[in-house]
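Field reference: "sequence" (input) and "structure" (output). Example, Rod shape-determining protein MreD:
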Amino acid sequence: MTYIRTSTHWQNFHFLKLTAYTFFLLLLQVQGVSRLPYPALRIDLFLPLMFGVAIEWPPVASIFWGCVWGFAMDVLSGKFWGFHLGSYVVAICLVNIGLEKFEFQNPLYQMSFVGMCALGQSVALGLYLLFEPAGSISMMSMWMSLAVRSLIMMLCSPLILYPIWSGRKDWK
């Protein structure tokens, strides 16, 4: 199924709306989510956002958007450079590859796809934490926390994606 990107006026408005929404998610990520007491609750709000961007925009523009915001998130995180940038670009590329084969209008497909990307992100983070001198963190609790983090990201993805797609008339 091919999605038609329509008029220039809609694209300009949608770009401004998406930019404002991205800044809102950035503020929420930095001020709210990253300060939660349990590591499993510190989800990445931008991964589902990149899923929506990859469907809405052409591949080059969405990869550029993912690189810009991935770099910004890497700068704000302070450790493990390239983690956010790499995971966003991989997610965008996977969405563009699967766009012709999957029906991404279905929220269950959206959730499962974001969940797979979140699981990949958690595995990369877990492998990084294995080699990081972490102190007294139990390996089993770390992997359980990362799995719960992936599950929460998967369940929250429709809530994050809804503002991006709420104005689409061709999906109703």
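Residues 1-5 have pLDDT under 50 and may be disordered.
Residues 8-165 form one domain.
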